[in-house]
Amino acid sequence: MTLTEQITGLARDAKTASRELARLSSEERDLALQAMAEALAGAGPELLAANALDLEVGKTLGLSSAMMDRLTLNEARIAAMAGGVQEVAALPDPVGRILDERVRPNGLRLQKISTPIGVVVIIYESRPNVTADAASLCFKTGNATILRGGKEALNSNQTIARLMVEAGRRTLGPRFPAAAIQVVPTTDREAVPILLSQTQYVDLCMPRGGEGLIRAVTECSKVPVIKHYKGVCHLYVDREADLNMAESILWNAKVQRPSACNAVETLLVDRAVAVEFLPRAARKLQSRNVEFRGDAQSLELLQGIPDLRMKLATDQDYATEYNDYVLNVRVIAGVGEAVDHIHQFGSAHSDAIVTANEATARKFLTDVDSATVYWNASTRFTDGGEFGMGAEIGISTDKVGARGPMGLEELCSYKWLGWGTGQVRG
Amino acid sequence: MTLTEQITGLARDAKTASRELARLSSEERDLALQAMAEALAGAGPELLAANALDLEVGKTLGLSSAMMDRLTLNEARIAAMAGGVQEVAALPDPVGRILDERVRPNGLRLQKISTPIGVVVIIYESRPNVTADAASLCFKTGNATILRGGKEALNSNQTIARLMVEAGRRTLGPRFPAAAIQVVPTTDREAVPILLSQTQYVDLCMPRGGEGLIRAVTECSKVPVIKHYKGVCHLYVDREADLNMAESILWNAKVQRPSACNAVETLLVDRAVAVEFLPRAARKLQSRNVEFRGDAQSLELLQGIPDLRMKLATDQDYATEYNDYVLNVRVIAGVGEAVDHIHQFGSAHSDAIVTANEATARKFLTDVDSATVYWNASTRFTDGGEFGMGAEIGISTDKVGARGPMGLEELCSYKWLGWGTGQVRG
Predict the structure, then answer these.
(1) pLDDT for residue A384
(2) Min CA distance, B44 vs chain A (Å)?
(3) B406 φ, ψ to 5°?
(4) What parts of chain A have a pLDDT lower than 50?
(5) At residue A144, what are phi and psi to the nearest 5 degrees?
(6) Cα B21 to Cα B227: distance, rounded to the nearest angstrom
(7) What backbone torsions phi and psi does residue B156 show, to the nearest 5 degrees?
(8) Residue A277 contacts by C-beta under 8 Å, 6 or more apart in sequence?
(9) How far apart are the C-alpha atoms of A308 and A318, rounded to whole Å?
């Protein structure tokens, strides 16, 4: 069997499974999810053995210690993974919601109802827990999933998927389609473009990972892609900002968890308050050894602070997601320039303004074309849990399909049902 | 300037224009649309002169008479085009609707509001009126449009777009961005893949036209595509159908307008009623000289009808959108087989069941994975106007972004606004 035949078969099986998944009741899906959670929780030795094989591969590949850590499963992580699946089981059913309803003059009743999307491909990097997360969210929404994790995590990922499928079949018997959750069974790089050209079987691809991965997927995919692209997030401190609030939000957005995609990379300060705000913000962040990269004006204002790590920012810096204790700064002339900077360098993820002036805030909220825009709040809130979605499969920086945090509702499509009594078109 | 530079410039200008469009008020957009409608209505001689050039090109290209007719503008068509723009002006503003709202325990108020998508590329075939339709719908939704019509319609399309832009600028002055509505100024085929690789500027592409066009666009596009693919629509007549209703719906769905994408191509009949229903349906449709292509069983039941045009159907027939007085028929064993046939051969557009049994109907509505599924109604209702959307830019057979008839709301994206009072993440 060629690789193309193998991958085409995988995709075709997923499509068939998706038809069967659409027929499961809400209760059946939740029962299966509970069984999957229990199976994962009880399979510690098996998961650790599979993971040990992957760690061997990782060592051979010379992975960094950070990557080895991400790849590692242990009892606590297995328990967390199982707990995540259990939580998904407990969430309300996102399928079958009535999104719109209208009765036409001829009596035809039209209902727009949420449905599964069909077959969803998830492409991600090393953490094996993503396998259980993504598979459970897709299963909850009635979607068949095809998972493609990092090549070094294949054994762990296959074991997780197999445990989940076995649990599903124990619970629902043949009503649970074995191809509901599949892991691409090869590390061959060519598998990805083949999979993403199966337009007749695959309905959506969601890549999660670094910029290179996202670009490679977008480049080769013939199926719709929802991207979870980098977060170059901004905080704009307006001339009418409460500077205590601005400092507190900056602290939270920059250093509470710099590795998060919703952490701030760039601070824009209105020149009317820059003299006061910039040095004070810098002194505060210096306690976490934050490095500053600024325009000439910012650096001048920061000059007097002893031992501050700072240098001139390049355009490249302004477009970079550091995920680290580094902050770009720039002094600008008002909200209009802030908006322009964000459109030029941002990634349309999450941006915030601090101001006491509602008109200025409304201008920022209207003009900034990002998935989430905040007034007087931290960008760190862009997260499915913080949004009350219960779970999150990622954060979309796209504008078609879903935007911002993606929970269960965002993993649904819809269809229109027409309830008639013999109506024909005039 | 190379073609790549030219097309990149066009896309970049559209993105800049889209930022400016997002700042226009609802009233400003409607004023501009009214002015555009008047400009088109008053520009008969200019439009006819441009169209005459295109008709010359069409003759040289040896277009069929049907294609020449589609390409032709006349006073009535110009009036209809202007009237369409006027109607769009009168529709409610689709931008800024609050789609969801929630206040988190920390007091952060989250609003999900409808926004323009940004830059929308429309690729279509010969009818020049699509230029005005698509441009007005996109402008109403605050989107910048890049239009690519048939190569034989370039002069007409450019004139329509120029008249609309001039009217916009007369009305709103420099607040109306000249690049709000652009026609790709070349017939070079290479322009399309270049345009559809501008992921930093283009947010969505909507191809409208034949299967070849749709496939070519999907194949080359790096930006999200919402397809308006063929309509291989089905009518399933169940064993518990009211056969008078079934006959009336079949008549409407097949012969009221066979060229429409929501017309039925295939009739599936439950074998329990086939002996009674098929011959009577055939005699009725014979009055319009409909040709039947059926499986062996159907043909046997139809044998006794004098002069009926009929032949054995191939798998290819079952997958074909005829847009003509041709009907596939097949005798099947119940709703399950109907669903399977539809999934194997259909195009996920519009499908209907006629039955008096609610459980059977619900099974069909749930299991058929198409954009619109009807119970006891004609498939011909799949249309923005019939759905009460006021206008329609097409009918999506995709499952991500929009599905089924696409009106103004379906030309919108959304963003989340976070209204805070200094909240930071714990």
Answers:
(1) 93
(2) 32
(3) -110, 110
(4) none
(5) -85, 140
(6) 25
(7) -60, -50
(8) A237, A241, A243, A246, A247, A269
(9) 19
Q: Is B42 helix (H, G, I), strand (E, B) or coil?
A: coil
List the alpha helices (DSSP H) in B268-367.
271-286, 296-302, 315-318, 335-345, 358-367
DSSP B92: P
pLDDT tens per residue across span B294-338: 999 999 999 999 999 999 999 999 999 999 999 999 999 999 999
The pair of structure tokens assigned to B28 is 């400003």
Taking the CB of residue A302, how many other CB atoms lie within 10 A of it?
A: 20
| Contact list, A401 vs chain B (CB under 8 Å) | 224, 400-401
Q: Which of B231, B387, B393, B365 is nearest to A425 (CA)?
A: B387
Position B161 scores a pLDDT of 98
Q: What was the pLDDT predicted at A229?
A: 86
- Residue B186 burial class via C-beta count within 10 angstroms: exposed 0-12, middle 13-18, buried 19 and up: middle
> B333 exposed, middle or buried (CB, 10 Å; 0-12, 13-18, 19+)?
exposed
CA–CA dist B204, B223 (Å, integer): 6
* H or E element in which residue B29 lies: helix B26-41
Quote the CA–CA distance of B411 and B413 in Å, as a whole number: 7
> Using an 8 Å Cβ cutoff, are A228 and A208 in contact?
yes
Give the closest of B404, B419, B425 to A380, CB-based: B425
A9: CB partners within 8 A, 6+ apart: A1
One-letter identity of residue A256: Q
Contact of A343 with chain B, judged by CB distance below 8 Å, is answered with yes
Q: How far apart are CA B352 and CA B324, in angstroms?
A: 19
Domains of chain B by range and CATH?
3-229+403-419 (3.40.605.10), 233-386 (3.40.309.10)
Query: pLDDT value at position A343?
Result: 96
> Mutate which of A206, A353, A370, A400 to test chain B, going by most B C-beta atoms within 10 A?
A400
CB A129 within 8 A of CB A82: no
User: What residues of chain B lie within 8 A of the CB of A399, using their CB?
Assistant: 117-118, 203-204, 224, 413
Rounded to whole angstroms, the Cα distance separating A398 from A390 reads: 21
Q: Look at residues A243, A254, A147 and name the one whose alpha carbon lies nearest to residue A195.
A: A147
DSSP state of B210: -
| Assigned token pair, B388 | 């009460």
Show Cβ contacts of residue A178 under 8 Å, excluding neighbours closer than 6 positions.
Answer: A17, A165, A169
Packed helices A243-255 and A271-286: angle between N→C axes, nearest 10 degrees: 50
On whether any CB of chain A is under 8 Å from the CB of B358, the answer is no
Q: Which of A409, A413, A205, A100 shows the shortest CA–CA distance to B401? A: A413
Show the low-confidence residues of chain B (pLDDT under 50): none
CB neighbour list of residue B389: distance below 8 Å, 6 or more residues apart: B405, B406, B407, B408, B409, B410
Q: What is the pLDDT of residues A61-100, one digit of tens each?
A: 999 998 999 999 999 999 999 999 999 999 999 999 999 9
Of B22, B102, B386, the CB nearest to A369: B22
Q: How far is CA A200 from CA A9, A187, A224, B339, B398, in A?
A: 12, 23, 12, 17, 11
Query: What does the pLDDT read at residue A228?
Result: 87
CA torsion sign, B212 to B218 to B223 to B227? Answer: positive
